[in-house]
Amino acid sequence: MNWETLNIQQFTQAVKDSKGVCLVPIGCIEKHGDHLPLGTDLFFGRDVCLRAAAMETAVVFPSYPFGQVSEVRHYMGAVALEANLQMELMQALCDEIARNGLDKIILVCSHGGNTHMLRYFAQSQLDKRRDYTVYAHIPNFSHEMTIHLNAKYGAPQGEGGGHADINETGFIMSISESLVAMENLQVEQTQPQGNLKHLHNAYTGLHFYGDYPHHVAGDPTGATAERGAAWRDFFVNDLVATIQSIKLNDNAANLQHEFFDMADKPGA
Q: In this structure, is residue 185 part of a structural domain?
C-alpha cells in the first residue's frame, strides 16, 4: 500500500491492516558507473518494498533519497547531506510516521553506504523513550544466492561486484531497458584498484573510493532483465520474512519499554 496514493479512509484502514508496520526504503542519489541512472537505489528500494508489502501487508512510505553518499561528492549528481542533518531528518521522519499510527518502522536499506548509518540510527533510539520501534533492515545476500544466480545466468567477468554491477544493471533492465546505457560503460573502471589493501583491520571512509573511484564495482557485461529480477526477488523474500517476524512477535517493543523503565531508575 503506497502511503501517497491512499485517501484518508484507506489510510486509516491500512494502519490497522498492516498492524502498524511501515516500510521506508532508504536509498540515495549517486553515480552508478556511466551506464545506470543516479536514482538506481531509489528504484530498487521502492520496488522491493512494494513487492514485499503486496505479499505481507505493510504501508510503504515514498522513497527516501538522503542516504549516506559522502564518498561520491567528487561526482556531479550526488546529493550528500551533512551527517548530523541526516540523523535529525530521519528522526523527525520516524516521529511523524509514528504520529500517524504506524509504530513498527522498518528502515529498508537499498544502498550499501547506508548500512552503518542505519544500524547506528537504530542504536540511537535508546537515547530517549519512544512509543514506537525502529528496525534497520539490512538485506542479506548470501554467497549461496550468488552461486545460484551464476549457475543459472552465468558468472560475471573479472573481480569485484556490488555496485552498478551485473545484478544492479539487470534489475534496472527489468524496469526499463531505456534506463540503461551500456554503450557508456568503461569496463576497465569496474575492477578493484586495491589502493588501501595494505591496511590491516582498519576501516576508513575512503574504503570504497580506494577500490572503485569511478563508482562501478564489478563488470556488468552480460546483464539481463531476467537475472536482475531474480536477484531482486531474493531481497523481496528476505524483507517479507522480516515483516512476518515483527508481526508475529512484538517482543522488541516490550523489551524497549522494559529497558526505559530500568534506565529511568537504574539500580532501583
A: no
